[in-house]
Amino acid sequence: MAPDESAIASGFILTENATLRDRNTLRVDARAAWLAEVHDAAAIPGLLEHPRLRDCPRLLLGEGSNVLFVRDFDGVILSMKTRGVERLDDDTYARIRVAAGERWDDLVRWTLAQGHAGLENLILIPGSTGAAPMQNIGAYGVEVGEFIESVEAFDLGEHREVQFDRAACGFGYRDSIFKRHPDRWLITSITLRLPREWTARIEYAGVQDELRRLGVSRPAPVHVADAVASLRTRKLPDPAVIGNAGSFFKNPLVPGWQAAALLAEHPGLPCWPGAGNTSKLSAAWLIESCGFKGLREGDAGISNRHALVLVNHGNASGAQLWALAQRVRDAVHARFGVLLEPEPRVIGG
Ligand code: FAD
Ligand code: EPU
Q1: Which of 106, 119, 162, 171 has its Cβ near the most Cβ atoms within 10 Å?
Q2: 247 C-alpha to center of ligand 2: Å?
Q3: Cα torsion at 213, 216, 217, 220 (round to 10°)?
């Protein structure tokens, strides 16, 4: 439904009974009672006091590349659409404040074009900048938390602006304070701190081979970006072609003793050191070993390119996708004793 003209107030656009199909990359045909798109962060307090929204449940949404709607949402979805990139001065670092509604991949490309290195391994990750701290987006050996100086947000419980420095964000693997308290803080901008001295981060499996393939012997930041982009394009299905939310499960962190026991039985299982005494296992390998790679049930499926990616071949409902994901989780648990946790936010699951 088109936005209700009478509901367009300064700084936000309100739509009643909004379709979400084009607002989630799994392309689930869900609806929200209300959708509020915020174009000016200063409008947030007024929006929260809107008579039709004051008592509604709230859900925060960016570009929907890490959510699964299992059912409709009977409340208001708040989505930051603010734009703007501001340079803040600093000699040792390039400090940049970025509005939540900027696309993450555009930002990575902009920083590289400006000669600021650091984010190149995080190229081609879909979604908005405001969502990046949420799960501390990471790829090819780098996580965004390393570069975050602060996160600016609106506290939806206390109705006031707040700022988190990096330590207060509590970043971990696919984790942060924001993820642990969903819908409490609406992130309005982030401030990045990119070191002026650059060291290539090319240890992740496949990156150096890809650089060689591209004919690069002394990589500059743009070469690393090109290598990562080409690996990602080869490995992951494109949401513009087939609905998906990237990795559907996190790589599980298990105690060292459990990893050792599993490796003794399955020497091919990819395993990396995790935080503390844990080991990180490849969820894709566990899922592929259970025979799910390429499986299709109706329009719900598991990608034949990457076993960690749940796909919508067309008209799968959120409930069908979630039922398949649960089957995968149960099969991995039964065979390996490892419980997989979804990476995306599952709404109504
Ligand atoms: P959404 O999906 O809209 O929301 C995700 C979560 O963030 C939700 O809990 C939502 O409530 C919350 N949120 C959104 N905006 C805000 C805000 N302004 N304030 C507070 N909370 C908010 N992720 C990786 O880490 N690494 C990858 O390599 C990677 N590859 C991907 C590849 C593909 C093909 C796809 C489809 C996804 C991939 N992802 C990856 C997941 C996804 O791109 C990231 O999680 C991204 O940050 C989500 O951004 P979004 O704007 O789409 O957020
Ligand atoms: N593998 C399989 N089968 C597959 C695919 C992979 O067995 O179908 C095994 C391979 O042995 C491979 C290993 O899994 O060596 C790791 O695969 P890959 O390099 O693709 O990484 P991943 O662990 O599957 C993680 C992130 C991705 C991120 C890449 C690169 C998680 C949950 N996923 O995937 O993030 O892009 O590493 O850093 O941590 C996302 O979060 O949505 C996402 C795509």
Answers
A1: 119
A2: 7
A3: -140
